[in-house]
Amino acid sequence: MNEKKKVILITGASSGIGRQTAIALAQQGHIVYGAARRLDKLQDLEAFHVLPLQLDVTDEESRKTAVQTIMAATGRLDVLINNAGYGSYGAIEDVPLEEAKRQFEVNLFGVAGLTQLVLPPHATATRWNNH
Ligand SMILES: NC(=O)c1ccc[n+]([C@@H]2O[C@H](COP(=O)([O-])OP(=O)(O)OC[C@H]3O[C@@H](n4cnc5c(N)ncnc54)[C@H](OP(=O)(O)O)[C@@H]3O)[C@@H](O)[C@H]2O)c1
């Protein structure tokens, strides 16, 4: 494989910035997996050589399956672009806590969970396991 050709996973590829970025990276010759929950919204990305992948970043099993799918096909994952997310705005007295928690699940813990899956273990990781 050309060393400059990266295997890339970009989340939130079914619309907006993620979709356009996935297309641009595929046009540069990279192997691009475009992920989101709505597989139907990803299908037409195949015309741009983006590989559609179903993924809910809030779901641990879904995250594992997505990464395993890529590793089984390519043996590597060079770049993760944590783009999936959304804004939820309002005064604190107006935003239901369930909605606030949901946003953290997507924008924060989804990012952290996926990042942990693709990064190699850090040398100091055991110090957390001891607590
Ligand atoms: N546009 C802006 O001006 C702006 C400004 C600041 C920050 N941002 C951030 O930049 C990113 C992209 O913005 P955008 O405007 O392009 O957003 P967008 O068009 O609304 O797209 C959001 C993407 O995130 C995906 N997504 C949402 N929840 C998900 C979940 N649980 N699992 C997997 N995928 C999920 C959606 O796909 P599915 O619904 O199919 O899952 C969709 O593809 C977002 O994180 C946004 O918060 C955008």
Task: State the gist of this model.
The chain is of the alpha/beta class and 131 residues long. It contains four helices and four strands.
Describe this structure in words.
- The protein has 131 residues and is of the alpha/beta class.
- It has a single domain (7-123), classed as NAD(P)-binding Rossmann-like Domain (Rossmann fold, 3-Layer(aba) Sandwich), CATH 3.40.50.
- The protein has four helices and four strands.
- It has helices at residues 16-27, 60-74, 97-118, 126-129, and strands spanning 7-11, 31-36, 50-54, 79-81.
- A four-stranded parallel β-sheet has the order 3-2-1-4.
- β1 (7-11), α1 (16-27) and β2 form a beta-alpha-beta unit.
- α2 (60-74) runs parallel beside α3 (97-118).
- The longest helix has 22 residues, at 97-118.
- The protein is globular.
- The mean pLDDT is 93.
- Residues 11-18, 36-38, 41, 55-58, 83-87, 106 line the site of NADP nicotinamide-adenine-dinucleotide phosphate.
- NADP nicotinamide-adenine-dinucleotide phosphate binds at residues 11-18, 36-38, 41, 55-58, 83-87, 106.
